[in-house]
Prior knowledge:
Blueprint: H1 3-16, E1 24-29, E2 35-40, E3 48-50, E4 54-61, E5 65-76, E6 79-85, E7 90-93, E8 98-106, E9 113-122, E10 129-136, E11 142-148, H2 162-168, E12 175-179, H3 196-213, E13 219-229, H4 231-241, H5 271-281, E14 282-288, H6 308-312, E15 330-335, H7 343-355, E16 360-365, H8 379-404
Parallel strand pairs: 1-8, 11-12, 11-13, 13-14, 14-15, 15-16
Antiparallel strand pairs: 1-3, 2-4, 4-7, 5-6, 5-8, 9-10, 10-12
Helix pairs in contact: 2-8, 3-4
Amino acid sequence: MKFRNIVGLLLLLLATGTAFSQTMYTVTLDKVTNGKIKVEPAIPADGKVAEGSVLTVTATPDKGFTLDAGYYSVKGMWGAMYHESMKSPFKVVVDQDKHIGASFLEKSEVDHIKVTQNIVYAQPGVKPLKYDVFSPKGAKNLPCIVIIHGGGWASNSEDIMRGMARELTKDGKYVVFSIDYRWSRKLDGDEVGNTMADLIEDVFGAIAHIMEHAAEYGGDPTRIAVTGDSAGGHLSAVAGTMPNKIGDGGFGKTPGVFEFMPSYLPKGKSVEQVREEMMTAIQAAAPSYGVFGGNLLNHYSEDPKADDTWKEGIAPLSNIPEAEDREIPHYLTRGTMDFLIKDEAVKEYVDALVEAGQRVEYVQVGGAGHAFFDWKPDEATKATFKKYGVYYINEMEAFFNSIFYPEN
């Protein structure tokens, strides 16, 4: 092609706007209360922002309030998926349609605690695995509560449980650790899909790291309770009933052997030491609207040898210890309007606990649906948390108190 023809073609493309067209996405600013946000550069009136643009968001609370989280949200499997920052300013890269906003709360909600965020305990895959610590000011040798978030084993992070963490620390009796873990399959971007055994190994790895460092935050590593909701209800039940399955025998590599190697082991400690210490330290479980067995459980393994015994290897229902061997009291909750977790499934787990001689309390929350312990920046989730979550978190704490503060 001659030079003048190339120039002519470029001029034509420029004139029609097709030569250097950019992908544009819609950025929406959500309504903010008890504070304000500023986005730089400013969002155009039509909300259209070029792909790759980097926005700086500054969140400023009103007097008497503090930042809960700045965020951007995108469409997810359970509605809006929030990506949050507890610091301001924060950056947002425009790579799809996004909402931007911020959540503020009264200072009195957090004045009692010191929050330490994003402590990385392991990185077995693409995603660094981390947890947040909520420590009452002046904490010393307090029992620890470990929270494990839900999200179908495929979404969310530890941020979604911060409302529960704040509530559980208000009486100054517990140091609370809210943990993250790998998502199932390839949802984290890993080349090899993550199995349920991998997620369980992350949970045990997080607890091992917490036990190693609990004293730095005023916690007693020998007194631990576990809780979590939905997928986290399953994982917290596993942590409560199955620390005896910690080991280096592999999961399903040998027929009938289903063991979990924690994603983190403290330096100088063997897996056998970690197993024995964790079996003694974890003394209570409060799995909320969780999956304990049945068809909702998936081992996510692509190994051709995987069969139903692999599902039993990750099912708390199939691995309850006899109380005479190891006591692990349970506190269970479920909303009566829960569309996902059925009463019959929870009762099956309750009956199995009772048959094993374990202490168990099961409370149905009238009118509540699924995920009422979650905390997100939107007002609907906050309202549900205040209506149902706060009261039953206090009831859960009373259950923990009966174990860790029996003299009161």
